[in-house]
Predict the structure.
Amino acid sequence: MAPYESDDSTIAGEADDLRAGRRKAARYVVPVAVVGVAAATIGLVPALADSGDPSLPKISAQQLLDKIAKSDVQQLSGTVKVTTDLGLPNLGGLESSLTSGAGRGSGDGSSADPTSKLTELATGTHTLRVAADGPDRQKLSLLEKAAEYSIIHNGKDVWGYDSQSNEVYHSTAPDDGSSEKKQEQPPATPDQLTKDALKAVDDTTSVTVQGTAQVAGRDAYRLVVKPKDSGSTVGQITVAVDAKTGLPLKFTLTPASGGAAVIDAGFTQISFAKPAASTFDFKAPKGAKVTEGDQGEHADGHAKVAPKGAPKGDDWTGPSGKDSDKGPDGMNVIGKGWDSIATFDTGGQGVPSGAEAGGQFGGFLDSLGDKVTGKFGSGTVFKTRLINALITDDGKVYVGAVSKDALVKAANAG
């Protein structure tokens, strides 16, 4: 099927509509940090695997965006396969030691705390089982070789359970005060990833429909989103959109540098039947350690403290489109569209060198970072195949899907 080019002004308008819709939507109520981890590690995605090219009626990019925006799937269950290749070094035994200690504070934390458990999605291949029944019931399970980790939202309760350690984390779902609720899929699904990606659609973006595909037995259109300029590390995003429901079934992001996709996240099986009510039931197993927390605390019960200048809200709507603008909560945004760079001041020191950090963690820091200098002074650039970040020695942060040189240029100008 031949591609159909969209009109950029209507695409930008559609992006505004999507943002407005998200403001009204009931959030998937795991702790905010879980959404952040999932969006940061999965929200940038993979190569689309076809199992046939179905013949479907012609559709424009604008019409397909409308279809995504109007999609209102309330019930589903299925399996999502996620493969992440950010180009991070092999962490060896460091990954487990970091994640098991995350959020523990004084030692009374829980391995079932989603803020630490879902960091495992940053590397490798994982299988997730998801289910949803309206805005008040969702479940996501991370299937491991000899264990299972689950997050269950049922009404006002959010539970995290790690079967390997027999630990439970419990928190209360935040109430956004909205009288109008709309189903919002768990953060690891292609639906949520697509909504996040479409925030970047503006006049610096090309959006087309390029053929069809079949994913998880469903006929789908292929929506392709790519930067018009060459400065971004993003190559293109490909989304397989269910032809009947408008639900994104697979979300693919490949880097401008080429090679394997950064992440591959897509349904391998999906059903739109109403899940059994028992799917969302949870009772702490006998003998399990239960840790109580809430949306305003870490697992160790200590209040979260944001760095100076960092966003105070739980999400960020992205660049405003101006050459230099102020983010919604004090974050500066430099540049435009896909080449934009977010910057804020931590108010503290920069990243210690490997020698200063010492041990295995020091070696890990050295393997990730490149020391750089410029008019701004000196700092360290941390690289992945997609997102790069410069942290200056005086604590300023510049981050974006741009090259190292672009970050240094921004720091020199800042």
